[in-house]
Structures are given as C-alpha cells and as structure tokens.
Amino acid sequence: MIRFFGRLGFLSVFLFGSLTVSVFAVTDNTVNRSAEKKCLFVMSYHKGYEWNDGIDQGVSEKLAGVCQLKKLYLDTKRNPSVAFGKAAGLRAKAVVEQYQPDVLIVADDNASRYLAAPFFKDTDLPIVFCGLNWTASEYGYPYKNATGMVEVAPILPLLKNIQRSIGDVKNGVYLSSDVITEHKDFLRYKDEYRSRGVMLSPVFVSTVSQWKEAYLQAQQADFIIMNNNAGINDWDKSEIEQFVRNNSKVLSVTNYRWMMAYAMLGMTKSPIEQGEWAGEVAAAILSGLPVQEIPVTINKSWFLFVNESLLQAAGISLSNRVLNHAYKTW
Description:
With 330 residues, the protein is an alpha/beta fold. α6 packs parallel to α7. The strands form three sheets. Strands 3-5-4-6-7-8-14 form a seven-stranded mixed beta sheet, sandwiched between helices. The longest helix has 18 residues. The N terminus is likely disordered. The protein starts with a strand and ends with a strand. It has ten helices and 16 strands. The protein folds into two domains: 180 residues, Response regulator (Rossmann fold), CATH 3.40.50.2300; 141 residues, Rossmann fold (3-Layer(aba) Sandwich).
C-alpha cells in the first residue's frame, strides 16, 4: 500500500498481484453525466488488445461516478509507423483542445511519445501516465504537471526460474513483433542477461510466416523469450497453438499473460494494476491533491504461470520450486 500525503489528507492506493475498431477511435464513455469534472483517457493501442483492455478496466472502475470519462484509442500497435503515430497524436491533441479535460490520462509509450510530450509538457493540464516500459525519461518526464507508473517486467526472476529448471544457460532467442515497445524491451533484456553471462539474439517479425520460421530456427537455442504477438496482424491463435505443440523442443517463456497459450513458463505483469493506480491518482487530483505531490512509481505485482500441456508435448520438466508456486494453465 502506498500513501500520498498532501494538504488535503492522504490517498491509499492498493497495487494488485481482449475486437477491431476504427483506426482512430473516440468513445464518450461518460460514467456520470452529472459530474462536473472531465477526464480524457488516451490509450496507445486498440480495443481488444488484452493489455490495453486491462488498463482500461482499471481506469474505468476507479473513475466510475468520479468524472465524465472520454476514451481515445491511437491504434499504434496495429499501425506502428512513426508517420501514423504523429498523425494520431495530432488528432488526439485536437480532441484535448475541444474537450478541455480536467485530467489527461495517457497509457503506454506512444500516448506519451505522440501526445503528452510534444504538446502538453509543463502546461497547466494535469497528466497521469501509466504503462511506460522501463523508463519515463525518454519522454522528458517528470514534468511539473505529470506523474505516473512505469511498467517494469520481472526479467531477472524469469531468468532465475529458467536456470532453476534447465540448468546452465548461455544463449537465448528473443522473438517478438516488430514494434517500438518490443525493441525497447529487448534492450533491457539484452543488457541484464549479458551481465549475467547469457547472450540474447533478437528476431522481430511482422507476419505469422516470419514468426514460424524464426520459431523453428530458435529451437537451437537454450530457451526462447516469446515477448509479444501484438502487431502481427495475421495472427491465428488456434494455428499457432498447434504449431508450437508440434515443434517445441526447448523451453519457451514470456512476460505476457495472453502469450501463455504458446509459452511454457510465464512471469506476467498486471495491466489492471496500472489502470487502477492511474484511476486512483486521477481521482485524487480532481479532489485537489497537487500532481507535484504524487511521486512516480513502478508496478509491484507478478504472476507465475506454467503451460503443463505444452511442457508435456515437448518433454520438458520444470523444477518443483517453480511448479509448486505457479498457476497451472491449459
């Protein structure tokens, strides 16, 4: 539990342990039309992307009855080009100027990259960010008008569980979609694992055929990090589940809950934690707590999963220490 102390008292925040829409979607999800305050929630990705939806759930629950809540989806996971992102940011800027929110909430990297940083840094508009991978400094945070939650992954605990299960490891493959946040994640993995004697080779792909080819080649490594499939627009869940069941020979791991259908071991983050924190903080700001008095923080909750059927199909055994503490899935 974290308490923010200010001149108006304190706010207690508890940190806890999946549709296609238009290219640029705006929804007026007003949870209390009589509320005087207005909140604008700008999400980097699209409705139906599980991570995005989890943050949305957390924000919406915490702001129900607190403010009028308008939502924007920048859709930059399915449209990862810089040109698209900049255009989406400009359209979002126009919505901010028209709607005149009392608080702006921005989720994941691109909402800060294309909206908050270029247009609203150090203005009078309070900003709450969440879901920024590893660091917020590349967007110029902290601002005088902003606070937020940085998203970190349990990559070192994940490595320890890999080592507990398959012993000494020297090389792995990082397989992910070819989008900005996955490149950012890889750099952190590479540095942390290299300092511990483990070399990672990155493979970024845009199609299912590329992903399958890379997955087959990765069977020569000690393990595979399956970081994300979002951004591979022709992804077919049933097809990939059958493919990995037929072709898996080495341990596959992930940090994303929805990737557990294709991976054997996962230590996952909670998007709802990010959203609930952002919603609680936005409510506190609306109540009068100065944004400058709310420190930037990081997520705290992890979940351990194993995919027993995929492990059995590959003939791989995990350590009892891992199995005894994990949720068993599939």
